[in-house]
Each structure stands twice: as C-alpha cells, then as structure tokens.
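As a warm-up, study this chain.
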Amino acid sequence: MKTLDEMQREMASLDAQLSPIANRRTRWWEKLRRSKHPLDEAGMRSAAEQLLRDVIEIYVRSDKDSRQIIRDLFDKYRSFAWATTLPTPPTTPEAFRDHLLLFSIHDQGPDPRDAVLWLDAICTQARSAGISVNPILEQIAKVSSDVDKYGKRSTKSWLLKAAIVNDIENCVQNHPPLAPPVKGGEQKPSPLAGEGRVSGILNKSDKA
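Now compare it with the structure written out below.
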C-alpha cells in the first residue's frame, strides 16, 4: 500500500499533466464536440484510476488526521480530482460504497450545489439497483468530515440525512399520502409523494 507521501507525489504529477486540459478555454460547442475523456486525452486513464482505487482504500483505513490530508490533496490537485472518476456505476453494494467514499473525499468540492446533486444521483442509482443504502450511508458517514465548510452542514451530516431521505422515500412509495379531496370527492396522491430526494431534503433543511 502506498504511503501518503508517495500518493501525493503521484497525484501531483498526474495533476500537472491534466491541468492544461482542465483549464483549457473552449467554446461551449467545442466542449460538446469533444469526444475523448480527459484521462484518455492525457493518456493516463490506467494510472489515474489505479491511484484513485489506492486513495479510496487508504482513506477508509486511515485515522481522522490522515483522512483530512487526503481531502486536502483533492482540494489542492483539482485537475486530478475533476478528471478522475470511478469506472463503474454505483449499482452494487461495493461500487456504491466506493462512490460514497469518493464523495466523502471530495468533501463537497468547490461547489456544494453540485455536490448535493451528485449525492442524489449516487443514491438514486443505488436504490434503483435494489441496494440497501442506509447501512452503507451510515458506514461512510463515520469516516466523513464533520466540518461545515460552506454553511450548508457537513458532509457527515449530508450522508446521515441521505439515510433519512431513503426511509422517507420508502414510506412514501409504500403509503403515498393523500391530498385533500377535490370536487366530486376524489382523492389523489399528495404532491409531496416522490419528493424524498436527497437534494430536496437538504435544500429545505438549509433554508430553515
């Protein structure tokens, strides 16, 4: 297993190679035409994805201070963090765990609005695949930051809330609340049915 110093040196090297791609100024229609993934364009997919796997495994086994060092590396080497993603979707318990660990490492990234949509997408895919998401969300929350970076609550809090959202989602699906009767006595499912999304709950809580 790599040491933190070895991991940092490798990440710094990959980040330097990816930086011209990440920071390249292109018109929006040129971005749409771009067919190559940044890792493929830089010719480093294998090396970057292997490093990411190493980072995830080191992160989950590390103590609190070492985990924060890893989060700081992703904040420092943003080109690497931007370009390097997991190759498989979160549709198995193991893959869902890895996606949540990567989410935890990013620690809301440069924009919490993007981060909450990312968490919502991860959980939605996992639930659709029939994964029992709550135990894994609670497990990853334990190794996540409890620092409120942007005044939107901590990543640890987000993951614990996502577990609550999942319970709400299951409850709404099994027992849809009824809206008040309309003219003629007909009752329809409440507009609240289906709103147990992670992004919806977090946004509402943040406004409170």
